[in-house]
Amino acid sequence: MEEFTLKTFIFYGFALTTVASALLVVTVRNIVHAAFSLMVTLFGVAGLYVFLQADFLAATQVIVYVGGILVLILFGVMMTSGRLEMRIHIERGQLLLGGAVALVLLMLLLTVIANTPAWKNRIDDGTELPPTTERIGELILNGPFLLPFEVVSVLLLVALIGAALISRKEVRD
Amino acid sequence: MVVPLISFILLCPLAAFAVFGILGLANKRFPRQDYLSTAAMLIALACSFLLLREVVPSPEAHTVDWLSLGNVTFSMGFYLDSVTVIMLIVVTLVSSLVHIFSMGYMHDDPRYPRFFAYLSLFSFSMLFLVVSDNLLGIYIGWELVGLCSYLLIGFWFEKDSAANACKKAFLTTRVGDVGMFIGMMMLFTKFQTLSLYGEDGIFTLAASQLTTGDMVWLSIAGVLIFCGAIGKSAQMPLHTWLPDAMEGPTPVSALIHAATMVAAGVYLTARMFPILTETSSLVIAYVGGITALVAATIAIVRFDIKRVLAYSTISQLGYMMLAIGAGSYVAGLFHLTTHAFFKALLFLGSGSVIHAFHAMHAHAHDDEKHDHEHADDEEYILGSEIPPDQDMRNMGGLRHKMPITFITMLIATLSISGVPFIFSGFWSKDKILAGVLGRAMEWNSIHHYILFVIALLAAGITAFYMFRLIFMTFFGEPRNQEMHEMAHESPLSMTVPLIVLALLSFPAVNTLWFNKDYVKPPQQSHLHAPTHAQLAPDTKTGGTGVALSLFGVSEAVAAEEDAGQGTQDVHGDDGHHGSAHTAHTIAMVLSIIVAGLGIFLSWLFYHRRALSAESVATTFRPVYNLFWHKYYFDEFYDGVLVALTVWKARLFARFDGSVVDGIVNGVGLVTRDILAAFVGFFDNRVVDGLVNRVAKITWAIGGRIRRIQTGAIQTYLFVVLVGIVLLILIFRVL
Amino acid sequence: MTLQHYLVISAILFTLGIFAVLTRRNAISILMGIELILNSCNLNFAAFSRFMTPEDISGQIIAIFGIVLAAAEAAVFLAIILAIYREFGSIRPDEVDTLKG
Question: Min CA distance, A16 vs chain B (Å)?
Fold first, then answer.
């Protein structure tokens, strides 16, 4: 067992926050509450990225998710839900079945995680790595990921145009 | 040289027919078609004369394989001997003259081009028949000339009588042709060939293979083939079509129904001469003899000028048959030739007379129509009413009006009557009589004595009725003044053929037959040998010597050639010269006597009117009626054969109506009401039920299964996840 | 902190996302579930990158791509939801069942 340091404490704090808020996301009846819980979760994940020494990734997570996607989600909530529909209906049977499947899946995943030899005893030795931003920039714009990067750019463009096309009101003359 | 000549002879008329027949179909009147058709015939005629020189030395045959059926190969080819060449000349000559004559006679006919096309086709067919070296070729030509005869008799098919006559001719000859075909098949079965000449020909095989035991069989085959000749040459009892065939245009009567086609039967019989047995020969001789006599007696009482000539033709054809049946091969063919010329002449002459009355005919048409309605009330017998322009009772005194026609017809009449020495008919008829009598004396055969008497009688009657015709037509006072005024001599195109034919009625132009080396009868002796050998001694001990002394007048030329005739019958036996000689003398004297007697009686009856024909007719009423009704042949055929056929047809019709229709209707009823109902039930219940059941089951299954497709995304996702979980579990476990 | 810590967190997030997708009766909630799932994946990439190949940061780049995809996906998803809402007047997935057999 590793020693219980401040760093470890903070890590567990992030981990718990993330899991707990995620739990809230899926259980809270009010959809707006769920959205805010999701924000907490995303922040938690961003914190975990920091622990993984992925600083650029953590920043991106906060900017894109919290700053973009979450706002988008909230817009969606506002545009589609009347006040009465703010509450999420959950049927008991569906809840049970879904819960069962999810539980089995979780057990399965945990089993796999526990039993895969290559993943055992991989301890974060705490070595400081250089900031990743420069290297990522190098890899993306002047390295093997140039093509995927461009493809993803195009994909984003397509998604934007597609989203605009789908969501706009059809003009009938 | 022979092959191109024969090709020309055959192809000229064929080409004329093909070209003008097609043009005729298109109903185009080709300019100068008549001249071109005639020219084609004249070329054929010239070629025939050229051929005469070529073939004299020896017979020539050219054959090609035609079609192979299994092991049997039928060949087509031609065989040329002296007889063929003479026939070719006869056919082409008469045909050419008839062509020329028709240019005048048929000129105003609306179907003038078609007429010439038919004439060309006929000429081709007849020539093909003549030159063929095998029975198949002969049969093809045979049927083709039959077809042409049908077409030409019915040329004026608007007339009911013509339409009926052509059908009658076609069907009657068909009866004989069936017999002929059976005979051909008998020969074919035996010899596996239809070729007549050459190493594998029927004649050679018959000579080498047949035994005495085959004689009965061969006799039957011979008689059956002769049946074809009976039909085509209008012998008893199938002669009834020929008088009715006079419904055709007169040139056709001259060409087909007097000179050439009807002679095809004689030609065929002559061709088959080598395989004729004694029995079949006798049958032929009797049929010919009886026909000669019966037809002659009918001719006495006819008033229609063409009918008289028609019966005369039948009678003369009977003569030829008699000659061949009695073994006088050369005499029969000789008579065929001479008869062809003078009978063609007679017919063309009568055509000239009819043509003279023709304008009158149109004029008198209304009256005739009136009469016709009357005639309809009586029982209608084909050809019983006489067109006014052919009725001899309307004629008389025409010799001044139509001198050329009169003189030429008189020559022909003298010839056919057997007026001695300067007319060809005398020589040929005398040769027949001599041949028959010679055979009778030689074999001491009662049959041939009877036949000789019959022939003699027929000769006398022939002279009588022919002069009756002449006297009624050309002498005396005009009986129908109106018609007489209208009569005129025919144009040059019609008189020239008459003159040419008249010249041919003199023996000088028939010298080929007098040259005994030119026509050699085929050998028949091997077939006759057995019986002959028994008969021969009897003839020597017979009373021929007395006859010789009684009729000792000898005529050198005739004797010599008759000696040749004698040897033909008994091959290589010189012992019969005497009897032949005697026979010739007797026959000649007797024939001159009966001919003179006939002419004299005719003169008494119809010119001097010393005797009244009417009173004789009244006295011998039954006999007259018998002759007048043509021995009731037509009545017999109408009353028995036709009635029987009609009765049979009615019976079959009733059978058809009740039994066949009943069965068909019954089957229909059963099918519709029972079978169809059952099938319908099966279809509705079983088949449809099955289909519907399957559909229902499918529907039901589908109804259940579609529930799976909830359309709810979450359900799908749930199932997917369950599937993934299960898969992982399974692979973990395994 | 071992690799397994991260993996467990990731697994929990993933399972919760699945659970949300399966049970929620609101399209936007489903979208949130999907975002959770995507986050768990990205977290996995980052964790594997850190622990399996410390020198190589390709895993992080893939995670960045994942975030980009998530953004695009969210945009399209919301557009679709808006279109559906206009068409059906509801975004309850069980009510949008025109594909029901």
Answer: 27
Q: Which residues is B68 bridged to in the sheet?
A: B73
Mark whether A62 and A135 lie in a shared domain. no
Tell me the Ramachandran region of residue C89: left when phi exceeds 0, alpha when psi lies from -120 to 50, beta otherwise: left
Residue A59 lies in a domain: yes
Contacts of B726 in chain A (CB under 8 A): none
Position C12 confidence tier, pLDDT thresholds 50, 70, 90:
very high
Q: Quick one: pLDDT at residue B701?
A: 92
C60 at interface of A, judged by CB pairs closer than 8 A: yes
**In a domain? residue C101:** no
**C87 vs A: CB within 8 A:** no
pLDDT digits over B79-113, tens only?
887 788 888 888 888 888 888 888 877 777 777 77
Please give the pLDDT value at position B558: 38
ipTM of the complex: 0.88
- The type of residue at B659 is V
Which CATH number does the domain housing residue C40 bear? 1.10.287.3510
The whole-number average pLDDT for the span C64-77 is 90
> Chain C residues with CB inside 8 Å of B709's CB?
99-101
Contact of B455 with B379, CB cutoff 8 Å: no
**Chain B CA closest to residue A112:** B732
Q: Where are the beta strands (DSSP E) in B480-619?
A: none
CA-based nearest distance B722→chain A, Å: 7
With bands split at pLDDT 50, 70 and 90, how would you rate the model's confidence at C2? confident
Q: Which residue has the higher pLDDT, B265 or A125?
A: B265
Residue in B301, B283, B294, B300 with CA at minimum distance from that of residue B316: B294
> Chains near A, with 3+ CB pairs < 8 A?
B, C
A64 vs C1: CB contact, 8 Å cut-off? no
Cross-chain residue pair A94–B714, CB shorter than 8 Å: yes
Q: What is the DSSP letter of B635?
A: H
CA distance B700 to chain A (A): 28
Beta-sheet strands, E only, within B350-470: none
Least confident residue range of B127-136, B359-368, B615-624: B359-368
User: Angle at CA B183, nearest 5°, toward B173 and B139?
Assistant: 55
| Tokens (6 digits) for B680 | 């319908």
The answer to whether residue C41 sits within a structural domain is: yes
Which residues of B fall within a CB distance of 8 Å from A88?
none
Q: Which residue of B has its CA nearest to C15?
A: B721
CA distance B51 to B645: 49
Q: How many domains does chain A have?
A: 2
CA gap B202, B216 in Å, rounded: 17
DSSP state of B686: I
Partner A contacted by C30 (CB < 8 A): no
Closest residue in B to A97 (Cα) is B718
User: Count H helices, E strands: chain A?
Assistant: 7, 0
Nearest CA in chain C to B718: C22
- What one-character DSSP code corresponds to residue B259? I
Q: Domain limits at C18?
A: 3-95
Whether residue A61 and residue C67 make contact (CB cut-off 8 A), yes or no, is yes
Cα nearest neighbour of A46 on chain C: C43
Kindly report the average pLDDT of chain A as a whole number. 84
Q: What range defines the domain where residue A41 resides?
A: 1-100+112-129
Q: How many domains does chain C have?
A: 1
Does A146 reside within a domain?
A: yes
Instruction: State the Cα–Cα distance between residues C70 and C85, nearest whole angstrom.
Output: 22
Q: Is the peptide bond before A148 cis (omega within 30 degrees of 0)?
A: no
For residue B134, give the 3-state DSSP assignment: strand
Contact yes or no for B718 and A108 at CB 8 A = no
Query: Do residue A96 and residue A141 come from a single domain?
Result: no
DSSP B239: T
Please state, in angstroms and as integers, the Cα–Cα distance from residue B492 to each residue in B495, B500, B670, following that order. 5, 12, 76
User: Does the pLDDT of residue B483 top 70, yes or no?
Assistant: no
Q: Mean pLDDT, to the nearest integer, of B558-573?
A: 40
